[in-house]
């Protein structure tokens, strides 16, 4: 709680902070306001890992400045050598522990010399400088060692099914069976912590800086029409089922109708379509919805969100992100999620070849919309060049295998893809239309009248966020007119609008214009 | 992203902040570190609600200082009077809009005079002082009004099923059917926002200040033995089911074995036992687990967490919270979740009556452990006084109905209840034992040897957090020895330990001592 004195002091510092910024002639505008607190926060708040426990330090913390201090560490035995020293590990790092050799500490020597690898140990001792020449510059704690005075084996470890070292390849099945051992590796620890921190910074941006409200929506929901990929959950009433929703789409739209104005949720979603390496039956998305917003508003929000939360140790990301229409993406990259880290665009060379006498070329060009396209591959290592979009990526892989650095794995190329078609012909019956994304997507304002005359030509207000060739987010401005929503469902999609009557009715009771986005695979891609 | 200059400035301010505290002779200890950043943060970060949209202000924002400014507001028509003015509402408040009466603005007058209540409107106009004597001191924006210049009806509202006013009582069924209209009320808006802010501050405390890692654990899980109240989810494999877990208990223990050290999650949990006003099939708990911690450590953590996140407008909460043993709670309050806002404790008056010649008293006292107990009720309004624990609460209700202020509804009396029994006789078969809480609870260190000789006498390391007579949290120090866990399951509880073999095996691979807690009903109780 804020005591009077503390609150007063905070206000003083607040003023000092403003003054410093004014000296640097950074004006106090909302834009500044938006970016400043994050800077302060990331510098000011360093987690304190030793609160509420009796350890004095973590195993990654001790430096020369601690020499002479009595410390208590808790950790796992990484390895032990000949009863002389052992290395203790926790989530933050490694510390070398010197096992005492004198008679007075024979009990400590006995304990530590016989503790199996990965046993859990408490050690109390004195921080000392390592003898000259024995420092380890590769180890953050490599200047010191701890001379053990007392020790306790808190839990002994039986023989491991595999070694807990990052460079040791384990079978996937073994890693899954002993997931808790796998988690002790530096890589998985760091992935979990990176995810937690990044989501925390996203929350700060949305909640603290921009007034978004974190609302948890139910996951035991009624079935969505056409939601074939939903898990069903039998209820206590015979023959009645809940379903686990694929996204909180309907809930977040209803929250906008409820006047919430700015909603977000780190939302658990479910999709019953079997597991794949990049797709799991349950997954999480950063789910966002705003009232009174247009496409550009959502795009600036997301660019700011990613800049704010991007890990400091990764390559900087520049905003605004470039934007490309769906049509351009298909024409130049043969896909709606282009990897823009490298060129090799698809080019139309029909005009060049139109005068040639190559028979199959002339034949292809003779059809309506007939064209001949090509990709220019630098240093033509590959002789086969017979397809487009997917081939471009395949060629990149081949070129990289041959030693050409095409796609920088540390670069992050974000791209907006916009102006998707609102409807697509159904795969099974091309005379009927289905939503390119979902039936709540609003038509492009320039094409609104086409909705009633030629719906196949209507572009939507859907936008995808693409990162290095992966779709990492997608959203749209939604339909907020009950009449337009009913027309889309009944007349264009030929669906029974009754199953969505609760949503359509909500639109009739003063639904604000609104739109949103969901960020999905982003966190997955960031992990190393 | 942090630019060099900003980072440097932040460091300067950081030093200034320390110096201020040193002047006030508050030493720089971990305890201070823990509480200081929150103070700064709550003063520094104010959400900016108008980013990414074209409104200049919310409807709760304008004051005399804004007079003369041209503003754009978006909101819902709260009411409209005779074509002269209307009140516009959004999530932040109300603003009075003056409808122009001159010919040049006849279109605006036409629009605004005919907009049905709860229609969504954009208004641009000039902020003006209200005429002298027409200010409304009850309204935060009551000093000003906005003279509309342009307006747009963004969505018209059809006739409402009920008025959106807090004082109008609606039937529960109608409120649920039109939940999005109910959400527009001040009370529900404020509840949702309070919850979001409080959880955000909890996250700051856990993640930013104390290094807890937010880990999302799966909800499609295998069935827990004895988990009769779990929802089942059919998988794609015939005859195989997932279950939706009642808590992430097993996952968080495995994360500790994985060396995560400090875990938290705002965790969705499921319990298939039908709906009740204070219990729903899905609910959320603040789920916490730590390694190398004892009961006192968890208690101090939670006290700090609640102080940090407690809404500023509610009564202060004092720490440390008082603590009471299970035995004391039952003896003095007749319940393991005492409401300590009022006295009326149960007293043993056996000794006083032992010398009396009242037959039934003597009879009761003649049994082994026989006793006579009483409650002292002030100003004895109630003549019937025939039962204990529940009666105490019932008496309090009766006394309050008779006008006696016993339980302050604005007071928050937290209480730890500790030293629960580890096992209880099964209700259906009292010769067998079941876990008082769950089979992973560690025995009290003083009673550890009793586990093998007389398990009925063993107290546990379980702790409950009680607020005003409601259990709002519970947790324990867990068993971290595989041998002890196997003994409890097989020898005491007579259960098949095979179904928990994954957990027992994990304890064999260097599981650290660990414990945790889950806070459940807290948020529910805070809502007004």
From TrEMBL, chains A, B:
GO terms for cellular component: mitochondrion. It holds the Pfam family tRNA_anti-codon. Keywords: Aminoacyl-tRNA synthetase, ATP-binding, Ligase, Nucleotide-binding, Protein biosynthesis. One of its GO terms (molecular function) is aspartate-tRNA ligase activity. GO terms for biological process: aspartyl-tRNA aminoacylation. SUPFAM superfamilies: Class II aaRS and biotin synthetases, Nucleic acid-binding proteins. CDD domains: EcAspRS_like_N. InterPro entries: Aa-tRNA-synt_II, aa-tRNA-synth_II, aa-tRNA-synth_II/BPL/LPL, Asp-tRNA-ligase_1_N, Asp/Asn-tRNA-synth_IIb, GAD-like_sf, NA-bd_OB-fold, NA-bd_OB_tRNA. Coiled coil: none annotated. This is Aspartyl-tRNA synthetase 2, mitochondrial. Belongs to the class-II aminoacyl-tRNA synthetase family. Type 1 subfamily.
